[in-house]
Specification:
The complex is a heterodimer. By secondary structure, chain A is mostly beta strands. Chain A folds into three domains: 221 residues, no CATH class; 127 residues, Immunoglobulin-like, CATH 2.60.40; 174 residues, no CATH class. Chain A contains eight helices and 28 strands. In chain A, the strands form eight sheets. A six-stranded antiparallel sheet of chain A has the order 6-5-4-1-15-14. In chain A, strands 16, 18, 20, 21 and 22 form a five-stranded antiparallel sheet that branches. The two termini of chain A are 36 Å apart. The longest helix of chain B is centred in the first third of the chain and has 15 residues. By secondary structure, chain B is an alpha+beta fold. In chain B, the strands form two sheets. A four-stranded antiparallel sheet of chain B has the order 2-1-3-6, with no helix packed on it. A four-stranded antiparallel sheet of chain B has the order 5-4-7-8. Chain B folds into two domains: 200 residues, no CATH class; 105 residues, Sandwich (Immunoglobulin-like), CATH 2.60.40. In chain B, helix 5 packs across helix 12, helix 7 runs parallel beside helix 9 and helix 8 packs antiparallel against helix 9. The chains are: A mainly beta, B alpha+beta. The interface between A and B is large, with 52 and 46 residues.
């Protein structure tokens, strides 16, 4: 998520330490600033002074003081912004601590005589001695902290016994002396540290080596308020909480005009939403939406490449898609993103639909409704080249009704194929929308395929069947039900018995439970082969349709 | 007169035409619809309940049901203005065959002047809807057979027109000597289903239900003392000669379960006319509502209700 303070780069800084009160992220200070980020720094320094005795210029054995020094420092800063986008850094806590221990000497002979207790010091770092600069670039952050702990305020007592010379010998004095040492806190400078949206930024800087006598480490962590720039529109899950218009919209349907147009009005909320802040950040905030097949996307002039503009207290943008895609699978789920400096900070999905009954699909049969054009892509074809047409050339009232006609060798699919229909033997009861369409088209294609298989309809139309009708040969068609004798009388014994498909002498073979709406064996056989046929709901992107509004409901 | 022409034309249907399976749920409504059609063809008035039921059926998804309801309402004693309003309301959602019958029904109910009716039918015949072309031509046969013939010939010769079979049959009604091609196989067309259904309603060219009383054979209403119920019948010349079956049914009679089958019997093969009868029980026919059903090749082709009333 975006930290508003962080993106108001170059704003004035100030430093203060106000009795260590630590406000929450997002809290407003008494002077009107909002706390947007916390910077927490931890410094750790380890010095190990080691030196063995050597022969001095006058022949004495000399040795430096050996000791361990451990210094730590901590700071807590708040990054704050006011309603005009002015930013400042506020030092809330700054402390140091240092300890000198293990004081001893190391003789030429390898002895380690103790040299006294050392010493400890700690305290706050005064505001005048800590100077912080922070800025943010495009997806990065920089910090420059200087800490001056060389002053008297930071000195602490270290007690140890010095070496003294007695005759030609050097020995540890019985009297300890006190020296004023300083902690030696270092600063930290780091530029262009990458910032990952929604995640804390950790800056780590080391000097020396932990295995050697000097090692220092800074670990600075920046944590920002992440709840202040959010997608308002689109918003939510279109499958479980569909919204079809206005604020929070997440289902979008192309218009019924030609060419079809789909408009997405993006909205993002910003808190605080003062005009100054919005103007500061608008150029760095943008929206994106996944493409919709061959549909051309155009952003409003105020929103080049999805860059946001200010409307009221929100950041907005408008994208317009023109022309419906050619493939049904190009509709559906599309990813929408809210970005800052090109980095996504929030994502959601929308669903894109075609207007079911309009006629503005690209290609296909002119004046056919969109459901006919797109649903046809979801049904597996039967037979070599089924010629499937929408039979109304003007209005549905002017058209044919669904049928397969082997004369012109064409299948017609009418408006009834998306309304309610209860097929004979259907496993799913009453079918609607794409379910009914899939059943009807498959049913008619099965008729076509059977005609192709039995009577070579692509080349001979009805001629072979007419010639075979009323005859008794295996390849003839005695009863006129369109099924050749050999296919009905499987064992070719001339009797309707076990194993036969149908009675080859009967147009409509009687049987127990034969539905009254089955008129002949050809219909019965077709229906029985597709008892479980229904549409693919996951590919139904019609409005209304199975995925629009209520899942698996065909008419909303 | 329109009704007569319609009836005549369907007499020439060939039963081999397959049709799209009518919606399984809607198919349950067909026996009642068939009963209504038979009633209309016998010039009997429909009850207010039947008219209300037909009006409801105009909203059905199944185009065959919508078309039959529109046909029935426009040929029966339905209130004109109210029916026209309903037809206008549902017309935009109709298509194909249902659109054809709804449009014709509207014209038949709104236009009583023969000349103006003919003019409006001619206007309708120019519609692209192929079923409307044929159905309007059939209606025009009685007033302008020349115009009707021209429309029908155009449709009949169009090998891609799904109404061509019916156009050829209608041409044969105008000129029985005319040679027309055998019907083309058109699978699943609702028009074919509709016509096949209406054909069944017209299979019986004559029929009569009579009760034998001492004073002679009388039509319904019958008395418990009626000695014998007789149903005489004759098949239409073009109807199938498959045997027909009669079912005597006690529809609503005290002491008997509803729609109880009392008796059934079949005609002899190839017999085209005859008589069925049901003899009085010893204690007489129990008063109540009865009906006869006539079936042929698994399809009910006629139904008639009657009452046995207490003395």
């Amino acid at each position: 998520m975006l930290a508003l303070a962080a993106i108001t780069a170059g704003a004035a800084l100030c430093q203060a330490q106000d009795d260590e009160y630590l406000p929450d992220l997002g809290e407003r200070t008494k002077d009107g600033f909002i706390v947007r980020c916390y910077w927490v720094g931890n410094f750790d320094l380890k010095e190990r002074e080691r030196g063995q005795g050597v022969i001095g210029v006058f022949g004495q054995a000399l040795s430096p003081l050996n000791y361990d020094k451990h210094t730590t420092a901590t700071f807590i800063l708040t990054e704050e912004v006011d309603n005009n986008g002015k930013m400042r850094i506020n030092v809330r806590v700054a402390r140091w601590s240092s300890n000198v221990s293990n004081c001893h000497y190391w003789s030429r002979a390898g002895q380690h005589p103790s040299a006294g207790p050392g010493g400890t010091g700690s305290g706050n770092i005064a505001p005048k001695d800590i100077n912080v600069k922070a800025s943010e670039g495009s997806g990065t952050v920089s910090i420059d902290v200087t800490i001056d702990t060389t002053g008297d305020d930071y000195q602490f007592d270290v007690r140890y016994a010095p070496l003294e010379i007695k005759g030609l010998k050097v020995q540890v004095s019985n009297e300890q002396k006190t020296e004023r040492w300083t902690p030696g806190v270092l600063g930290i400078v780091d530029s262009d540290e990458p910032v990952k949206p929604g995640k804390k930024t950790v800056i780590r800087q080391e000097l020396g080596d932990p295995k050697t006598n000097f090692y220092s480490k800074w670990v600075v962590t920046r944590v920002c308020d992440t709840a202040n720039l959010h997608l308002v529109t689109p918003h939510g899950d279109p499958r479980t909480a569909p919204v079809d218009s206005g604020r929070g919209q997440n289902e979008y349907t192309f218009s019924s005009a030609t060419p079809g147009v789909l408009t997405i009005n993006f909205e993002a909320s910003v808190k605080p939403s003062s005009s100054g802040i919005l103007q500061h950040i608008k150029d760095r905030v943008s929206f994106s939406v996944e493409g919709i097949g061959g549909s051309k996307v155009q952003w409003d002039a105020a929103n080049p490449n999805g860059r946001s503009s200010v409307r009221g207290g929100e950041l907005v943008a408008k994208a317009t898609f023109t022309n419906l895609p050619a493939k049904i699978d190009d509709f559906g789920k599309k990813k929408v993103q809210l970005l800052v400096d090109g980095n996504p900070i929030e994502k959601t999905n929308i669903e894109v639909f075609f207007p079911r009954d309009a006629q503005n699909h690209p290609g296909g049969q002119a004046n056919s409704p969109n459901w006919f054009y797109y649903y046809l892509q979801t049904v597996a074809k039967l037979g070599p080249k089924p010629n499937i047409k929408y039979p109304a050339t003007g209005t549905p009232q002017a058209g044919h009704t669904s049928h397969f006609d082997p004369g012109p060798d064409e299948i017609c699919i009418d408006d009834g194929s998306i309304r309610g229909y209860t097929p004979p033997y259907g496993a799913y009861g009453r079918l609607y929308g794409i379910d009914n369409f899939a059943w009807c088209v498959t049913h008619e294609m099965q008729h076509y395929k059977d005609w192709v298989d039995f009577w070579d309809v692509d080349n001979h139309r009805t001629a072979k069947w007419i010639a075979a009708k009323g005859k008794r040969g295996p390849n003839d068609e005695l009863d006129g039900d369109r099924i050749p004798n050999r296919v009905e009388d499987v064992n070719l014994n001339g009797v309707y018995d076990r194993g036969d498909l149908y009675d080859w002498t009967k147009y409509r073979t009687p049987s127990t439970g034969l539905p009254a709406n089955i008129v002949n064996d050809f219909e019965d056989w077709d229906c029985k082969r597709h008892k479980t046929m229904k549409g693919d709901h996951a590919r139904d992107w019609a409005d209304p349709g199975m995925q629009h509004k209520t899942l698996d409901k065909w008419d909303d | 007169m329109g009704r007569l022409i319609f009836t005549l034309s369907v007499l020439f249907l060939v039963r081999l035409l397959p049709a799209r399976p009518i919606d399984s749920k809607a198919a349950e409504d067909l026996p009642a619809l068939q009963e209504i059609i038979v009633q209309i063809q016998a010039n009997r008035s429909l009850s207010p309940a039947q008219i209300a039921d037909l009006t409801t059926k105009l909203q059905a998804d199944e185009p065959v049901i919508v078309a039959l309801a529109a046909w029935a309402l426009s040929h029966a004693n339905a209130p004109r203005d109210q029916t026209v309003q309903q037809l206008e309301k549902i017309e935009p959602s109709t298509y194909g065959v249902s659109a054809a019958f709804v449009k014709i029904a509207r014209v038949l109910l709104t236009e009583k002047n023969p000349a103006r009716l003919a003019a409006r039918l001619k206007e309708l015949s120019t519609n692209e809807n192929p079923y409307l072309q044929v159905e309007t031509a059939k209606e025009l046969i009685k007033t302008d057979s020349g115009a009707a013939k021209a429309i029908l010939e155009k449709v009949a010769s169009d090998s891609a027109n799904p109404a061509r079979n019916e156009a050829r049959r209608a041409l044969k009604t105008i000129d029985p000597a005319r040679q027309v091609p055998p019907p083309d196989p058109i699978e699943d067309d609702a028009y074919e289903a509709l016509l096949t259904f209406l054909e069944a309603s017209s299979s019986l060219i004559t029929h009569a239900l009579l009760g034998e009383m001492p004073q002679g054979s009388l039509p319904p209403l019958f008395r418990p003392a009626t000695a014998r119920l007789r149903f005489t019948w004759a098949l239409a010349p073009e109807a199938s000669s498959e045997p027909i079956e009669i079912r005597w049914i006690a529809g609503d009679v005290a002491g008997v379960e509803k729609n109880h089958l009392i008796a059934s019997s079949k005609s002899e093969p190839d017999k085209r006319e005859g008589e069925f009868s049901l003899t009085k029980p010893t204690a007489g026919f129990p008063p109540g509502q009865y009906r006869v059903e006539i079936w042929q090749v698994g399809k009910m082709i006629y139904s008639e209700k009657f009452e046995i009333k207490s003395e």
